[in-house]
Amino acid sequence: MPYIENSLYKPPALMRSAHLLTIYPSLFRKIRDVKYERERINTPEADYLDIDWSRIGSSKVAIISHGLEGHTQRSYVLGMVRALNKHGWDVAAWNFRGCSGEPNRLPQFYHSGSSDDLETVINHIRGLGKYEKIDLVGFSMGGNITLKYLGEKSGEVPQEIGRAVAFSVPCDLKNSSYKLDKLGNALYMRRFLRSLRVKIRQKAALFPDKLNDDGYRKIKNFKHFDDRYTAKLHGFRDAEDYWQQCSSLYYLKEIRIPALLVSARDDPFLSLECYPYKIANRHEYFFLETPKHGGHVGFVQFNSSGIYWSEQRAIQFLNHY
Fold this sequence. Notes:
Structural class: alpha/beta
């Protein structure tokens, strides 16, 4: 306790493939009934973050953090926004630096340890004085940032923050990076590196003295990318140092509010180290649930309401604890 051994998620009959569960939502799930209002806030070092709000006039709010190369228009974010609104939450879905449709102001952009940016969003929302309760929801990289923030702050987490839910989290960045470098995941790796190159080219045009994309084709995995760009731009020694400092795995023991991590055992992005069973079994606040199926940020479910299992599970946990 609190390892949740018997997860209730069951995939649709013909969708037991981890890759199908991973890819299907991004290609075919369409959510058109979420309307955002954008707010731009400044960071302490004169950069900015864009928050997309979906308000219903509630006294509680959920802050959603998306995944690598994602944004607030991804179907997994929109689905969670819609479900949370329906069940009584205002929602603030924030875009990582450079992910809201235009480059941010500084050479640095975002990375898996950007818990300082999440803290900026939290402090801004607290400062509005409108919300009695703040809950956190994160997906993949956003889940890592969320859990890292909670562990870093530990007993100093603001009292308004009640609970957190994170899905499909590469909480051991080193081993999940190597897992994604395997042949069976080549499609995902190529897609991420191609998308990241767009941002690198934008940055190189704005800050030619800081970086360039010469020889980018030689970058074949996250080790190459993080050694050349992430570490250099964000003050880490190298990829290994970045992974070590930013993996939420090393912060989980210090979490002091109820936090649920849900990661499918067939997730093609996650290594064995990303399932911290021992920590959960000895922890009062950290819950781990590992469905047999689900893929990466998948958890597809077909029903008349259009709600996915992950959305149901998040609301259930946030309401119960």
